[in-house]
Design goal:
It is built from twelve helices and no strands. The chain is mainly alpha-helical and 228 residues long. The protein has one domain.
């Protein structure tokens, strides 16, 4: 697993504060006991991670087919370029320099997705937090897309699932933090932290991009970066 995917996952997780933080906070009900609140958040995060892993399995199946046809071996550079570009786009969005993609109509309250979220939000069963997390994992995000491209490039179902599991695990700390701190951290501090994280994602996206177009240059700039 390239180290930059782990770093991108942790840095990009701050983007989850804006996209997924509201879902996590909506599940946190102070009137409930601490144990029930923790279990609800754990189920939410597990559901989100499971969606990522399931998506990884799907692209892993496609990647396996590409391997058998010999396509992946010749397309790794292209996949690195695509993944790097998506990371840069995600970083610019996280840092606030680029607007979100206009896909809101597919996830509006009147859409099939919006109706599903509303139905789950109204549910009070023990599986509701898990279902909400699973639906949250389907939200459109260039960071998720970049991981999916990287997962496709593995050419293996298990490796692709592992790649997406990294995204699921590295996206957890930020959401746990936002629920735990609540209003303790000022909006200004949060904005600055998110902007710094966005810049980090952009830089790592550039490294990934260079691995596709100029692997020897990437290796010269960062000797510990593999050229696979």
């Amino acid at each position: 697993m390239p180290w930059e995917l782990v770093a991108v996952g942790f840095a990009g997780s701050l983007h989850c504060l804006g996209m997924c933080g509201g879902f996590a906070l909506a599940l946190d009900r102070p009137s409930k006991g601490l144990a029930r609140r923790v279990l609800a958040q754990a189920a939410f995060l597990l559901g989100k991670a499971c969606t990522y892993v399931l998506l990884g399995a799907l692209v892993g199946i496609a990647g396996g087919a590409f391997v058998r046809s010999g396509v992946v071996a010749s397309a790794r550079a292209v996949l690195a370029v695509v993944a790097g570009t998506l990371m840069v786009v995600a970083g610019l969005q996280i840092a606030g320099f680029l607007r979100e993609l206009p896909l809101s109509r597919f996830f509006a309250p009147t859409s099939a997705y919006g109706r599903a979220v509303h139905a789950v939000a109204e549910a009070r069963g023990p599986a509701a937090p898990f279902a909400m997390g699973a639906l949250t994992g389907l939200l459109p995000c260039p960071l998720v897309w970049s991981f999916l491209v990287a997962a496709l490039g593995t050419g293996s179902v298990l490796a692709a699932m592992g790649t997406m599991a990294v995204l699921g695990l590295t996206s957890m700390p930020a959401l746990v933090l936002v629920v735990a701190t609540g209003a303790i951290v000022s909006p200004l501090v949060r904005r600055r932290a998110v902007r710094v994280a966005g810049v980090v994602v952009v830089l790592l996206g550039v490294v990934t991009f260079l691995r596709g177009v100029a692997p020897h240059l990437a290796h010269r700039l960062l000797p510990h970066v593999g050229m696979s």
